[in-house]
């Protein structure tokens, strides 16, 4: 999957930066400016889950939720499944009119 240039998260355009660090799929960093690093050679599903995971980290930090890694992983898995398994819900969220 080609990486998006950015993700819109909580009113911010957070840049997505390719990063070939072999030790991690992705990372959210808030400094010096919010950005998400993502390995550019993951398959489509791993890229989507990595971006969702890092977006949840970003939301947690931006809103002071202080979610644990376990909580972020749980939300990544179940929010991803919620979107995937409920196309009517997903379409309604994307096209509310
Ligand atoms: Zn994480």
Q: Could you walk me through the main structural features you see in this protein, from its secondary elements to its overall organization?
A:
The protein has a four-stranded mixed beta sheet with strand order 1-2-4-3, with helices on one face. With 97 residues, the protein is α+β, with helices and mostly antiparallel strands. It has three helices and four strands; from the N terminus they run E-E-E-E-H-H-H. The mean pLDDT is 95.
Question: Keywords for this structure?
Answer:
97 residues, alpha+beta, 45% helix, binds zinc ion
Gap from first CA to last CA:
29 Å
Mean pLDDT: 95
Give the helix proportion (percent range). Answer: 40-55%
What does the overall shape look like? Answer: globular
Low-confidence stretches: none
Q: What is the count of β-strands?
A: 4
Radius of gyration: 14 Å
> Which strand-content bin applies to the residues?
15-25%
Spell out the helices and strands N to C: EEEEHHH
Heteromolecules bound: zinc ion
Largest sheet: 4 strands, mixed
Q: Find the structural class using helix and strand composition.
A: alpha+beta
Explain the layout of strands and helices:
Layout: E1 6-9, E2 12-18, E3 26-29, E4 35-38, H1 44-62, H2 69-85, H3 87-94
Parallel strand pairs: 2-4
Antiparallel strand pairs: 1-2, 3-4
Helix pairs in contact: 1-2
